[in-house]
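Let us practice reading a record.
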Amino acid sequence: MSLPECLVKLIHLGVIDEVIRPLQAGKEAQIYLIISDGEQRVAKVYKEATERSFKHRSAYTEGRTVQNSRQQRAMDKGSRYGRKKTEDAWRDAEADCLYRLFGAGVRVPTPYNFVDGVLIMELICDGNGAPAPRLVDLAWSPEDAESMLIYLVGQVVRMLCIGVVHGDLSDFNILVDSDGPVIIDFPQAVDPASNQQAKKLLIRDVRNLTTFLGRFAPHLKERKYGEEMWALYEQNKLTPETQLTGQFTESSHKADTHSLLAEVLAEAQDAANRTGPRPGQSKYAARKAKRLKEQAEAAAEQAREEAEAAQKARSEAPEGRRNRSGRRGKQGQKGPQSEERRRERGNGNQRGQRPQQSGEQQAKGRAGAEQGQESDGPPRRRRRRRRKNRSPQNKSPQNKSPQNKSPK
């Protein structure tokens, strides 16, 4: 059995005692069954970026930052050094997330070590000591399916309370041992405070669970735990002990844009009043305060104009549909360009034809052509003389043989 170089290095360092066999292969990592500190554990070896099949990774890495500003600039730029650091940050994300979740009481594998991109963690076993099966490999009664869903939703709530959204949670990423389910696979976990896709990912995670367990209890498919959970999270009312009902109705209340624009306008005016020059300031501070006041007044004026334009557009909204060219207004009403086009067609101004000229314009054109002046009518097209295709011998005089040359 050929081992990855990283595992061989850890064996030489004494971190791993023995590699027993490969346990499972995923789309982003390879799992090995190992012996470390005298007990069986698993080692997760991440694949290279060219070998992974994980799609749309940019949606999961949004909002991730590192403390080193130089590394962050390189990662944003996408240089060779930045790509390497991006890969390192992708691998470090799961280890950091496991330590956070394990400390918060979420049922995840116990992390033991993370060395050179290899994560060593607990081996989840069933009652017989064999590797635990996945949730998708088991069948459930309606009662057990409902209790399992309630427990898993509670785990997702705990994760959200500490700022973690799994992002790829499904029945394939949950192991079931003798004590209950254990959630695995966290390299794509996102932070809901900095990732704009967190709501969509959370709702999708919970929907995956309700869809699978709804096969055994169909009434579970109608519950909306994800939407209810996110609504409480936005209102800062979600706690690890929150009991969800699965009943959620989306609000039909429209945003009050008028009050928002008024508040922005008032804030801009307040900023203009605060940033004005004050007595006793130096010349530099006074000039800076004056410049800031002018900018604030300009921003306030722009906000006021936008509010007035929005109000005017709302009050003068057309009743019928109107396309970009303005040909048609209401249904059955002709636009401003229709009459002009009709006149052009009547004069023979079809596509591909020249407009007809009056006798006066034709006379002016002939007179201008005779005198060599520009005419008022349309310019005449000049025909280009076609040059005869000449062979290279006839084209260049140097190719002529000396026999054809006439004697001097």
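A brief commentary: The domain at 5-234 is CATH 1.10.510.10 (Transferase(Phosphotransferase); domain 1).
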